[in-house]
Design brief:
The structure is a single chain. The chain is mainly alpha-helical. Helices cover about 75% and strands about 0% of the residues.
């Protein structure tokens, strides 16, 4: 057993990184769109 031995075990979290990125990206888009809609609605309500 030397220091030069590599750890070749693959973990599930390494394989599904793209899924995590997609979910977080979609969540970010939903929050951004919702906040934009709320802001526009609030600006329109202030004039009425």
């Amino acid at each position: 057993m030397g220091v030069s031995m590599r750890h070749k075990e693959r973990h599930r979290t390494e394989r599904i990184g793209w899924l995590r990125a997609a979910v977080l990206g979609a969540n970010d888009g939903i929050v951004s769109t919702a906040s934009l809609i709320v802001g526009v609605a609030a600006a329109g309500a202030a004039r009425a």
